[in-house]
Amino acid sequence: MSGRDDTLDRAPAYSVVIPTTGRGGLTTLLRGLAHGEGPPPREVLVIDDRPPSPTRKPLALPDLGLPLRVLDSGGRGPAAARNVGWRAADSEWVAFLDDDVLTAREWPARLADDLTGLGDDVAASVARIDVPLPDTRRPTDDERDTLALTRSRWITADMAYRREALVEAGGFDERFPRAYREDADLALRVRRAGWRISEGDRVTTHPPKSGGFFASVRRQRGNADNALMRAKHGGHWRHEAGEGPGRLGRHALASAAGVGALALAAARAPRAAALAAGVWAGLTAEFAVSRIAPGPRTPREVARMAVTSAVIPPVACAHRLAGEWRVRRGRAVLFDRDDTLIEDVPYLADPEKVRPMAGAADALALLRAEGVPVGVVSNQSGVARGHITAEQLRAVTRRVDELLGPFQTWQHCPHGPDEGCPCRKPRPAMVLRAAADLGVDVRRCVVVGDIGADVEAAVTAGARAILVPTGRTLPDEIELARRHAIVAPDLPTAARIALELA
């Protein structure tokens, strides 16, 4: 047997997840996978992300001999569609492909090469993206936008994730409604959790886009997603993600100058109005020239760049303001784990002993139906005491996720009571970290737990608290909650109260 064949025999099992809105390229992609050389996928999951409609027909997919399943994600966007896919997948690795990419015949073999031998600390393998452009002319604005994918660090047009890392990170953040930033957000979160991301050698082709006259204006909706990125990852997120500085500052200045020119003209201040108009014209001209120069410079393209360069700045600013408003109004609910979400088993190390608490699934479903992110904040001193290993803790986490997930953030404190760490409840660090991880103001977070330490951690962090007493909750802890928090009789009631508080 050759060395390469031996590598393929040892390749880890993988599934392929393809979100789609029914674009024609899907059939071509499936044909390519069906005729690929190398270890076949355990399963190909096509996620139908078309909005629900009484007249919507099932996807017409050819019978290519693939182990194919079609699932529905309800038209909630690519992040939600990918979550539906990877959660249904039963393999160590999940390879995400966009429905408009083209894979080479040797793609399965190349993927196997990329995944084989990766360390246990590697969360993902990202492919290299090739965008074929005409060699007889300069690329259009739409084509240059597609070409930018070749410079993206972590693009899910072709990216394989270890399922364990997806569980730990809570998958894709469904607050990103478009195919924009949701991949960079996930990568930043898994790297922050200590995972590495590997650059693979496989190459996937992404045909260039071709939009209408105002396609570049429509793309400005992504500025709303940038607001969420900043809230979750801080002001330096662009640098961490390998992005340039962006033009929002100049867009804001151009927009302000344009509005100022109109206001000053209405106030009959012609000189000041002329100065403001000059600033607007100069910035708009600079923007237009920067977009025209690298393009084909045809009359249509020049006209398109000139018109959209005047429209883009105020539209970009409007979307950013809308995004900032949504971020400010964001909310989250954080749960204690033992005796809140699952029955308390001292130093739980066996995933088979995980038993959800009564009402836990209903409470979580209620919150998710309202689009509220949920997370877990849990003391796990059994790690420090040597009663459970970090791997056993991860195995229990995976089981909780299978039964009650997904959770958008997991925060565990593995320290003992005497170690003086800032994260062990009743100290607030886990609550603060969870809020930061979700990009939510901690004052709009609600912590649900069963003992006084959960209430104290929430109050100290600045969050709201709800106590759901159990048989081991002390009377003094219930009295503390009545003074500083809210006492609920069960988890579904706590969830309804949380929706009113957050």
TrEMBL record:
Protein name, entry field: D,D-heptose 1,7-bisphosphate phosphatase
Any one Gene Ontology molecular-function term assigned to this protein's record: phosphatase activity
Family according to the record: Belongs to the GmhB family.
A Pfam entry, by short name: Hydrolase_like
SUPFAM superfamilies (alphabetical): HAD-like, Nucleotide-diphospho-sugar transferases
Subcellular location: Cytoplasm
Annotated keywords: Carbohydrate metabolism, Cytoplasm, Hydrolase, Metal-binding
Main location: cytoplasm
Gene Ontology biological-process entries: carbohydrate metabolic process
InterPro entries: Glyco_trans_2-like, HAD-like_sf, HAD-SF_hydro_IIIA, HAD_sf, Heptose_bisP_phosphatase, Histidinol-phos, Nucleotide-diphossugar_trans
GO cellular component: cytoplasm
Organism: Saccharomonospora xinjiangensis XJ-54
Glycosyltransferase 2-like domain mapped to chain residues: 15-129
Cell cycle recorded as keyword: no
Entry keyword Metal-binding: yes
